[in-house]
Specification:
There is one protein chain. The chain has helices at about 10-20, 45-55, 60-65, 100-115, 225-230, 235-245, 250-255, 285-290, 300-315, 320-345, 355-370, 370-380; strands at about 1-5, 25-30, 40-45, 65-70, 70-75, 80-85, 95-100, 115-120, 125, 135, 140, 145-150, 165, 170-180, 190-195, 200-205, 215-225, 265-270, 275, 280, 280-285. It is an alpha+beta fold. It has a single domain, classed as FAD/NAD(P)-binding domain (3-Layer(bba) Sandwich), CATH 3.50.50. The strands form 5 sheets. Strands 6-5-15-16-17-14-18 form a 7-stranded mixed β-sheet, sandwiched between helices. Strand 10 (about 135) and strand 11 (about 140) form a beta hairpin. It is globular, with a radius of gyration of 21 Å. It starts with a strand and ends in a 9-residue tail after the last helix. Bound molecules: flavin-adenine dinucleotide. Flavin-adenine dinucleotide (FAD) binds next to helix 1, strand 3, strand 14, strand 18 and helix 8.
Amino acid sequence: MKIGIVGYGTAGQAAALFLARAGHDIDVFERSAELSPVGAGFLLQPTGFGVLAALDLDAAALSHGARIERLHGQNHRARTVMDMRYADFAAASFGLGMTRGALFSLLHERCREVASIRTGTRIDTIAADDRHVLDADGTAYGPYDLVVVADGSHSRLRGNSGLLRHDPVYPWGAMWCLLPADDWPHVADLRQRYDGTRTMFGALPVGHLPGHDGRRWLTYYYSLPGHAVDAFDAAALERMQCDVAALWPELAERTRALTDPARLHRARYRDVRLHRPWRGRVVWIGDSAHGMSPQLGQGVNMALLDAQALAAALAERTDPALALPDYARRRTGHVAIYQRLSRWLTPLFQSDSRVLAPLRDLCFGPLGRLPLARRQMLKILAGSKRDWWR
Ligand SMILES: Cc1cc2nc3c(=O)[nH]c(=O)nc-3n(C[C@H](O)[C@H](O)[C@H](O)COP(=O)(O)OP(=O)(O)OC[C@H]3O[C@@H](n4cnc5c(N)ncnc54)[C@H](O)[C@@H]3O)c2cc1C
């Protein structure tokens, strides 16, 4: 098939690789003039790592990333709110902290050999025949046997699809950036600090940048209400540094080195729900289909799993009219569970609520010690919860 892919983030890159490997002819459209990743770093869950293994990229990912064994969260009274270890889920299990640049480069090195990538081309419309896509100047590309939309959480191609249930922007967002890890002691932990639900920040070891010089990095993120993300300036940077100094002096040494607010990226996210992720010959994958809050650290995972599932569905049924409903069936349960969990859990960490934080700080610790609840919490963390009751 001749396949057009809109968007060259993780979902678009992985889809291009899987589908090219199956023998399809791939055109990718990316609105950015220069190919580069957005943001700092992320935590890849075991399920997403499995997809990289299916692309023979696991060894390369390991050599760039940082093995994460534990998620630890503590409140302003130094009370442990969360302490989960991947090893309690499965002996050989771990998360992988990676810089965005490292994953982007690993996928790009392969993609550029097998797909035609057109940069600086923002696709604004899918033609009524579902076989052509049109850019901002009205130039049409195609015809395609299949169009894969992977244009992210703020997708332009979702609104008129007739499939949108809702996609509100979360009231809270975050600032985030890379910080040098150097002698950071918690090399295998994602660590977070909370004070109520209005203050949350964390540090995740993410290993190296692509073409690395041996230096290791941390992803640092700091939660803020949406309007404060949009208005983040030098005064806000100073307030952030004071918060960090008060709650986590060890990290404050590093955040003090941030002198320019422009060094931090702004992140706003949406809660995206579609009636179904396909229409005719067009399929939506990644954040464009199910953007969610990053609280559970699943978005990259989901993008990789979508791409793999789409290729598997097309391998079994070559006709898109049959393959796309099959793709939706493969992904619906998993996606729906994480969408719900994100929607429910995010206000426990990012909201104006006065009651949720005491409840969280009181319940999470004891819950995490009950074997059944702990098992479920670990399963959710590892990205492998596919069913509510089994
Ligand atoms: C602060 C933060 C922390 C996160 N942490 C984690 C984490 O720890 N673990 C995790 O798994 N996930 C995490 N995520 C979520 C994760 O980043 C996303 O889920 C993932 O990047 C989605 O990939 P995607 O390819 O669907 O979309 P994107 O990465 O957004 O890629 C979309 C691409 O499409 C391009 N594009 C957009 N519109 C058009 C258009 N009209 N035409 C052509 N091209 C277009 C964009 O330029 C972009 O390159 C985090 C997100 C945020 C904001």
